[in-house]
Amino acid sequence: MRTATTSTLVPGRVQIQKPGIAQTEQDKQRADQVKQAFTKAFDEYMQFGFPADEVRPLSKNGRDTRNGWSATLVDSLDTLFVMDLQDRFTQGVAATLKIDFSRSRTHEGVSIFETTIRYIAGILVSVMFLVDQKTKKEKTEPEATPFSVCLI
Fold it and tell me: Which of 6, 66, 68, 151 has most Cβ atoms within 10 angstroms of its Cβ?
């Protein structure tokens, strides 16, 4: 079973793959293609769908299916961090801090299951990454990080 551990080689980077396993050139190319596809999809969501839960790819309109709490954004936070897309991750964290969870923009009511797996889990994993990153920075840089507001 693969587990996420923080790499000691690059501060702030998360290592998913077992240490010592080498990637072939083809593996690296495939990983880059996946990262490019994800980045394109995320950027289009932020441009055309945000702050709605999702974006319709053909009409490029946002749609709320999960209470209007930017489900795609919150679902993407951990992937942004693992893929080392730090600018987008920082943007995502800042936008997540502005979500009004006190109101639903849909008429279906709030699903406890969906809220737990999407929002609580997504935000908790992001905070875990931020705390780990902040801890590593404090060992070398004692001043505050851009994520300090998330760690209060």
Answer: 66
Distances (CA, A) of 131 to 8, 40, 75, 138: 15, 28, 19, 10
CA 112 to chain centre: 21
Angle at 123 between CA 110 and CA 79, to 5 degrees: 115
Q: What is the pTM of this model?
A: 0.74
Question: How far is residue 133's CA from residue 102's CA, in Å, rounded to a whole number?
Answer: 30
- DSSP assignment letter at 15: E
Rounded distance between C-alpha atoms, residue 122 and residue 43, angstroms: 19
Q: How far is CA 15 from CA 1, 12, 125, 152, in A?
A: 14, 10, 15, 26
